Recover the amino acids of this structure.
């Protein structure tokens, strides 16, 4: 009786293991997608560093304006608003350059791929 139960248990587990999804197919789809990713990681990391550098520079400038003891509150607020505007402008320029490069890279890849 124990042997029959053991054989049935082994058969059930082997069937359940073989019935599970094949994860190799899912991974290959992900790898294919990443292989044809729009921009490589080195360029994305460079973009992230530029954004971080711009934010760090403007945070330091704003911090120095906030800590000026002889400046009036209104003048400080105006100066901080100007710095925030400049930061947004520089970030937008940086993003525009990055996405323009990315679009050009995609166009080149798509042109080569779709060429008759």
């Amino acid at each position: 009786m124990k042997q029959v139960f053991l054989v049935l248990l082994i058969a059930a587990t082997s069937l359940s293991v073989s019935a599970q999804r094949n994860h190799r197919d899912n991974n290959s789809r992900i790898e294919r997608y990443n292989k044809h990713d729009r921009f490589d990681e080195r360029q994305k990391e460079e973009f992230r560093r530029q954004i971080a550098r711009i934010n760090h520079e403007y945070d330091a400038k704003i911090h120095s304006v906030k800590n000026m003891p002889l400046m009036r509150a209104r003048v400080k607020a105006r100066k901080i608003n100007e710095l925030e505007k400049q930061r947004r402008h520089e970030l937008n320029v940086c993003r525009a350059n990055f996405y323009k490069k990315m679009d050009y890279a995609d166009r080149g890849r798509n042109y080569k791929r779709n060429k008759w």
